[in-house]
Amino acid sequence: MQVEVWSDVVCPWCYIGKRRLEAALEKFPHRDQVEVVWRSFQLDPTAPEGETHPTLPALARKYGTSVEQMRANMAQVEQVAAGEGLEYHLTDAVSGNTLLAHELLHLAAEHGKRNELKELLLHAYFEEGRSVFDVDSLVPLGVQVGLDEAEVRSALTDRRYLAAVRQDSATAQSLGATGVPFFVIDRTYGAAGAQPAELLLQVLERAWADANPLVTVPPADGCTDDSCSV
Question: Which CDD domains match (predicted)?
Answer without folding.
Answer: DsbA_FrnE
